[in-house]
Amino acid sequence: MAPTKKAGVLGATGSVGQKFILLLSEHPDFELFKLGASTRSAGKPYKEAVTWRQTATIPELAQSLIVVDCKSSEFADCDVVFSGLDADYAGEIEKEFSEAGLVVISNAKNYRRVPNVPLVVPLVNTSHLDIIDRRLKAADAANLPKSKRGYIICNSNCSTAGLVVPLGALIAKFGPISTVTVTTLQAISGAGFSPGVPGFDILDNVIPYISGEEEKLEWETKKILGGVGENDTFVPLSNMQVSAQCNRVAVTDGHLECVSIKFASEIKPSIEEVKQALRDFQSEVQTLGCASAPKLAIHVLDEADRPQPRLDRDRDSGYAVSVGRIREDPVLDFKFVVLSHNTVIGAAGSGILIAETLLGRGLL
Amino acid sequence: MAPTKKAGVLGATGSVGQKFILLLSEHPDFELFKLGASTRSAGKPYKEAVTWRQTATIPELAQSLIVVDCKSSEFADCDVVFSGLDADYAGEIEKEFSEAGLVVISNAKNYRRVPNVPLVVPLVNTSHLDIIDRRLKAADAANLPKSKRGYIICNSNCSTAGLVVPLGALIAKFGPISTVTVTTLQAISGAGFSPGVPGFDILDNVIPYISGEEEKLEWETKKILGGVGENDTFVPLSNMQVSAQCNRVAVTDGHLECVSIKFASEIKPSIEEVKQALRDFQSEVQTLGCASAPKLAIHVLDEADRPQPRLDRDRDSGYAVSVGRIREDPVLDFKFVVLSHNTVIGAAGSGILIAETLLGRGLL
Amino acid sequence: MAPTKKAGVLGATGSVGQKFILLLSEHPDFELFKLGASTRSAGKPYKEAVTWRQTATIPELAQSLIVVDCKSSEFADCDVVFSGLDADYAGEIEKEFSEAGLVVISNAKNYRRVPNVPLVVPLVNTSHLDIIDRRLKAADAANLPKSKRGYIICNSNCSTAGLVVPLGALIAKFGPISTVTVTTLQAISGAGFSPGVPGFDILDNVIPYISGEEEKLEWETKKILGGVGENDTFVPLSNMQVSAQCNRVAVTDGHLECVSIKFASEIKPSIEEVKQALRDFQSEVQTLGCASAPKLAIHVLDEADRPQPRLDRDRDSGYAVSVGRIREDPVLDFKFVVLSHNTVIGAAGSGILIAETLLGRGLL
Amino acid sequence: MAPTKKAGVLGATGSVGQKFILLLSEHPDFELFKLGASTRSAGKPYKEAVTWRQTATIPELAQSLIVVDCKSSEFADCDVVFSGLDADYAGEIEKEFSEAGLVVISNAKNYRRVPNVPLVVPLVNTSHLDIIDRRLKAADAANLPKSKRGYIICNSNCSTAGLVVPLGALIAKFGPISTVTVTTLQAISGAGFSPGVPGFDILDNVIPYISGEEEKLEWETKKILGGVGENDTFVPLSNMQVSAQCNRVAVTDGHLECVSIKFASEIKPSIEEVKQALRDFQSEVQTLGCASAPKLAIHVLDEADRPQPRLDRDRDSGYAVSVGRIREDPVLDFKFVVLSHNTVIGAAGSGILIAETLLGRGLL
What we know:
Four copies of one chain form a homotetramer. In chain A, 31% of the residues lie in helices and 22% in strands. By secondary structure, chain A is an alpha/beta fold.
């Protein structure tokens, strides 16, 4: 069945853009239609504009697409635009696009903290897309033209995406979590390619610092797991404490996070109940039958030494997360390890799933 | 000045034994006198018995020493014996040595939990050696022969050694710590060489599990930071909660640990006071002027992205620890990162410093 | 279409065996039917017997297959048996299997040098399988029972497999090559898992030695590119000099080899002709339409810095080789870099392609 | 004994400059006197200007030195100036310095091919410094002022430095070598720090290309091993063929090179004679007693699997090279593996040794 929706990609030559192109190139619903990049690249066939750094070759379809400037007029025919832009450019460009009536799904951090912009990890809080639903219905009622119907949806920071999936699953089953501590061991692909993390800094080494990452992880978690308040603005959880320590390690892909949690309730589930809740967890992308939805949102691994980035990051093509080493914590209630593919469910893949959810809900 | 004390090394061909030999080969106080290994190696010159895997070449002196069996009779002339034996062998052999009147400083785990065996991290709890002092005085009083004056002192697990140094420094200044959470990123040299961690398991990967490590880290910390009770037996802290998550990463040497702590007292120091306490910290090995004592026990690093294993593990030749990223913790009181050289201060070097302390106290 | 031929795997729990199982688990022609391993594993479901170390999960089908002993009686119903046995065991077991009438395709080195055993790199010398054809016709003529129709076919050493593909292509087009020098940079997966290459030996390091590898590379190349002589025995090339230097590098999968060649003829092709010959090269597995045959046997890469193991090893699912940096050589005629996936076309995948060729020729 | 000569460093904040500072900070002959860097850094204390990336901490002395602009007027008091400038800047600045009468020892490539500029690998061709000797004598005779006595000496490319040491030793003993093929496995520190080789390009990977490296290796080898012709200009060897293939591997420090050679003479030495010639090799830096000269210029290693970068790069503090795996070559005469520390003997250390040689000869 041929794709029915036209998709654009902003920042198409960057690392996130390249991943969007890979994921879209054989997508059943979306047709790779427009590629936007810097003025330096505009006018060139994509093949010549890009320094391709993926393990799969450039999709045939993308090779000869002529790169265009990141202006909404170039993307007027697109049903959805995926943005892999750097934060330096995303702010202005995504604004211009949404104000021109386009639907922008962004991997950039710029609008994540805006109160009425959904910050969505698709395995967790697609319910936040309800405000889009209401907004479009209101637009229908007001008979607004297409140019007034644009909006931005953000996906989360890559390390946040892995963390909130088991948190969301556990909260859904056992109620509020009061305390979360998380130490991350993050892959270098999260820092992009040019130059990203210098080889001399990461070989035989760990870098115990990623600029801005801990703040993002601590803050975004609360918005994603939070609710919707007055005027359809999001209200981050105020009664959950989150403490993050972030490290870069010599891994190409796959963020591993060591997590401890405490439930708010005095009545604690057993370890077996925790495992079962994670195994049973289902997200809207699965019930909607989204094309990229993982069969299993959370792979619960029983082996003592799993999950491991190299061995487990590609489960369900990187759209699932893996959780292992679930055990009691002498300080909080439980501790466990979660692994997520930082460039799939933690970045481009998350954007794709958001678009698939919009489509599945009839909003695209 | 020529060394005055004769030293033996057990498990001399293993990874810890090799490090003992390197550290002893140019030591001002100890003479490398006897090398013990398995029966398979006994009788061979060390050079032929060992598969040397250090970055420095085999010390001249050691090359032609004939390896002997691990029997106390072979080591009768040694003033001190350093044991780098595997746990499989250490139990029996170290017992036989100490019962024959020898002083054994062991890197093995076998006797660490024995109530009257000191478990010593030399930058932290050399006060635990007081019981040796008292025991030897009692032996003098009773006129006991040398054969009744043997004993075992254990150094800690490598990941414990890094953790307890800042903990000890902070407790010394600000009183008890009630809660510690720690996530480790440990180097592969901690697992030895043959085979140690398989390359295929660690390249482009993290292994979120080290057998028995979390238990050791949680338990040993409490004994080391605890006190001495009745009958000169050690009493682990009972009012401190410790939770550890241990990971193996692709680093050759240097354990990095992300730590969060909460003080027992309601009155908290400021970040600057915490930093100053760490900077000012002095241990007995320094005041005694031990040959291998670091100039600075704790290097407090102010750069945002330090300590890093490759860049900081060799500070003070690996006998110091480095602490960085000291900041407030939204869940507990403070969080920071500590780095220690796992084969120096975390293993063989720790044993050397213990022996130097005994010597400095006049106990050898 | 359901598979029509029953396949067995020997050494099923080892690294090559695991790869055979992955490749066979969704194969259109072969049904994974029997798994043989050591007596220690026999009787257990495969899932329990194996320490699985692949990036894909254990195929459903294999998980519950009961592992059997490596005895021909257990494999009597198999149409073909793939052997991933270690050389220590392969000699005896493969002999027993072939003498019992079974078709054994072996990854072990034991029988590679036997004059009437084909040593086949399927992209290069499937013509060597002609002797099997003749042997089976003779068996038909003599009305031999199945038990007299067993035989062994060997695939080559992993580093040989990559080298001979471009050599074979160039010889096919431009005639004999008189001189080959090759320096390899080999991945650690070639050494297996338990323990394989120790992590401490390969992190931040190169090991400029692989036991027996240079001899294999030099010798096997001559047999594979050689012809068939009297009595259907293979005659290695005598007029080609090959010199190999083999290194192990910190790469998980993918052998990269820097090659220089000199043609025997005084008349030399141009660089463009060399490239074109490589691009145009077609092997029998492609013309037969074998299920796993690569679309392109040789990917000729024009970028200055390719092929690279991480980026190019999976082209055509690892069944193709990549050649780049083709240029004139100041010493010999041409130099270039070839990359091959050492566990696919360099090991298990090669075995599969050999079996597919037999099937395509009607010999299975 | 206090240093007697004042030394300047150009490009002091870069990777080569940092190494110069480390090596000079405790040098018996040279005092670290002036540090030059870009205008952006000028005026700042070195500690604030640099992003230090060495495993040793910034030398006390250097920390508070105020960085100056790279103008000869700032360096007028220096007896020697070491240049770690990037090629983009080295051309103009080094020219200005030498024309102002300063002695410049440069690690940049800009002047290496100039016929009357010595290109010196100090373990090999300090004889090329004779032209400096003659030039200064002529200046004396002509009573030239200091401002007319400046000159530039270049050290070689890092991969060249390792190769020519055994070549030079063998030629000195057995006469001309007609053919050299070399495949390199080069460390990433050779590419500098900011950014140098991106981590994402080198983790789990090899890059079979380093821009301009093969040309340098092929050409420089011929100049270094060549002689001095008319008018004191250097004449590269014309009768030696060199073919190089260069690769970047995941190693921090230490270039490993797989070399094959053919002697011009029909009479070949034996392998033992080759080994002995390498072991016996002495260079002028050793006979002059230069402060940084290695005890042994060439460490000949007999173990089958050595030299290895991590284990052997620091022999003689990185000022020696290691050669192993010496064996007959089926194509040329002999093959072997050579390892050199690319930032010591392959870069900054080479510059230091050149200056020490000038000093030892009374030319500074």
